[in-house]
Specification:
Blueprint (H helix, E strand, L loop, with lengths): L21 E3 L5 E8 L2 E9 L6 E2 L7 E6 L5 E7 L5 E2 L6 E2 L4 E7 L47 H6 L1 H11 L5 H11 L12 E3 L7 E7 L2 E6 L2 E6 L4 E7 L2 E4 L6 E5 L2 E5 L24 H19 L10 H9 L8 H13 L7 E3 L16 E5 L5 E6 L25 E5 L2 E2 L18 E6 L8 E5 L6 H20 L3 E5 L5 H11 L7 E5 L9 H8 L5 E3 L7 E3 L8 E5 L6 H11 L5 E3 L20 E3 L24 E2 L4 H5 L4 H16 L16
Parallel strand pairs: 25-26, 26-29, 29-30, 30-32
Antiparallel strand pairs: 1-2, 2-3, 3-4, 5-6, 6-9, 7-8, 9-10, 11-12, 12-13, 13-14, 15-16, 16-17, 18-31, 19-20, 20-21, 21-22, 21-23, 23-24, 27-28
Helix pairs in contact: 4-6, 9-10
Amino acid sequence: VEVNTKAVTTVATSGSGEIHQFTWSPDSQWLAYVQPEVRRFPNLYLHPVAGGDPVRVTDGWFDAGSPEFSQDGKLLYFVSRRSFNPTYGSTEWNHTYSDMERLYYVTLTKDAKAPLAPKSDETKPAEVKSDAKSPDKPKDTPPDVKGGEKPVKTIGDLLSDPEFRRVVTALSKGEQPAEAARTNTADKAVRVDREGLSQRIGVLPPGASDYGALTSIGDKLYYLKKGKLFVFELDKEKETEIGDVGSYSVSADRKKMLVRVGSELAIVDPPTAKLETKDKTLDLSELKVALDRGAEWAQIYRECWRQMRDFFYAPNLHGVDWEGMRRRYEVLLPHVRHRADLTYVIGELIGELSAGHAYVGGGDLPKPERIPMGLLGAKLSRDASGFYRLDRILRGHNWESKYRSPLTEIGVDARAGDLILAVNGVSTREMVDIQSALVGTAGKQVRLTLNTKPDPEGAREVTVIPTDNEQDLYYLEWVLGNIEKVEAATGGRAGYVHVPDMGVPGLNEFAKFYYAQLHKEALIVDCRGNGGGNVSPQIIERLRREPAFWTIARNGAVNVDPVGQVLGPKVLLIDPFSASDGDIVAYRFRVHKLGPIVGQRSWGGVVGIRGTLPLLDGGYLNRPEFSRFDLGAREWVMEGVGVEPDIAVDNDPTREFEGVDDQLTRALEELRKAMDANPVRIPEIPPYPDKSR
């Protein structure tokens, strides 16, 4: 945008997502930007403001980003993923690449020197000084302008100098003296030699890691790496860790730096050593604003409407009259009296698009303090004696914090059937509810008096640390119970794994239980209640592996290659709470013909989201931005429909409450039939080669 004329010039367009990364050269005559490319790595380009074709800096073979001109305009720094150092997994023979980035630069002209060019180790000969006097000039003759220093002028000389007076006059008017302006422009003019540009790429010494937020200040390059601020000094060829900095920004004159450390902001001089923010933090405690909530809510409403208009995956907005919808719900704004009201109105508006993942929430809401309840990880009931009985103690994996079951920890002598006679010395018989004695005790030591009878004689006192959430314990109990049911029904031949979501937690549960059951002859994969995510490709890749051959090692047993696979049949369980990537995993399971799907139709929401743009009060709006259609390009799949099971089974709530899982039972029936029809057979090894003949 030309500020004076308001003229808009299109620099570049992308057919593969937005262009987010760009930066100006010091003379504002070049714009460096990252161009997303279709189904390949992005490239760095240079756009000449004066006109002409853009200059491609990188060649597309490696991911590149974060461009930054050196302050003298001779170099373009950038980050690129060109370091290949694989890490091999512990669960299977597989690899991943991480920390691939390093700091790179390209010399913009052919004659520019590399910032870390080799330095000569030769010493210069000492300069020979002569005392001989010049025969051409008398001793008291001042040097002329060409041959030496200019003679020093007095204040009077300066005031009478017309050039000096012209410069002072221009500066007093806020103008740049013409000659000075020309000189500065010449000194900072950025030149780019197109030919051979991608071959003039060099790398700075800091090792492979994760880099971003590059800023050049003189011969120093600042950047963020792994949540810390670093500086690399080119003249010293030295990298220095500055400190823990979440983000930073440098002033236009490059003399001050604003840093965010934790929740605080500080203004410092660009540091070259450990960051010190004492007495430099900004006191924002008195930063207040007179807020017109009605105006703010109206702006947020229009912003959400606009974002849906501009980012919704279908440009036709599912055929909805979006302008008409804005007017329809806008009349409710004068009646909004709380952020929750606004959220409701916006929710109704975006709901007209009939798409999943259209979420709105957060914002400036009162947040009352929540007092965590101490929970024992057990089912309790009131005994006829008035004390409380431990009817069932939930199993735990106490080595994992979220699965810590307080009453099963080492040293806690508690058993199902015990009576809790007292909590911290107070009799439970006199309590209206035992939970009243556990308010605020999560994570703190609590003394329980236990006995097998309602009598203090023979009672024992144990110290327990209650948890603040039993949900994970009930989940673990359910999973372990299902594993036991499957093992009992198949004589230990079949395995069971539940995947609660398609994020890191779900991937962890899959890895925990899948690789431990590779010896099984069949597998039930339970994705009921799956909350979605994005790892279904990784799950399905493991499930669809096929044997290529058998392997045998001396003193070893026959195994299959590739490893990491259950050889026998598989069944997938889904229900209406299999959502998002929980829908998609079922679709993939069917496309790859991995086995029957049992249960109920899945949720049916697969138009994806990728983050939120900020709203005035800190709230959020998730915009459905990308969706899926079938390989034949005939129809959009799953959205609003879900995935139908091959075998429909609806769990009766009453029977399920009693512990009867009809869906799991039917999955076991299908699995047993498949196992009988195609049993897994590990072969005997053939005769070893005899190469003596």
